[in-house]
Amino acid sequence: MLGPITFRQLIDPTPEELEATAQVAVAAFHGDEFTKCCLGGNWDLSPAEQRALINAQQIGGENWVACDGDKIVAFAGWYGPGRTLFDSPEQEAAGWNEFVEQMPARLHAWWMDEFLPQYDATVDEALGQGIKQSIWHLQLLATHPDYQRRGIGEALVKHKERLIAQAGDCSLMCLESEDFKNCELYKKWGWDVKGNRHFETLWGEFDLRAQAKIPAA
């Protein structure tokens, strides 16, 4: 039986808390087509990728977690105005460099020469040049499979959205979705699709959608 779910921002987290958060992402994204492409089809790389993302968010942004008792069951990673993923050596050193070292050459080439440049171009075309860096950005949202379809992810996102709206210093939020079902879910939550790009890789294909929403209290 599901107990009361509580939300909190990770402040000065322990290594165990960060690892628990990463493992939620590993479980949540296993089998996902976009994640498979990012890993070059090698699921053994998933923990390294998720640690890189979550550790970077902890340094440059915010990690918000949903807990069942003391157990982390979902999280949302956000970047505020002026910050983005891997925008500093400190973020890169917290796990990204280690992930890069584990990439085969052709996967590394895809990330650097195709995916990241086209990712940024898609968002700029959808929102306007530099807009993403000036607003709140939902970088990552994941719920452990055992806790999905219970409204936890939606509640976690809306918790932070209310705080953004109450602060009154940001008129727009954005995110990127790659899974069609997730895109439709975000649309139900009020996030409009502003742009889309189709990616074909050696390991599969996916659509990257830029979505945006005016924060509401």
From TrEMBL:
What are the N-acetyltransferase domain coordinates in residue numbering?
Answer: 5-215
Q: What is this protein called?
A: N-acetyltransferase domain-containing protein
Q: Which Gene3D superfamilies does UniProt cross-reference here?
A: 3.40.630.30
One GO molecular function term of this record is: acyltransferase activity, transferring groups other than amino-acyl groups
- Pfam families for this protein: Acetyltransf_7
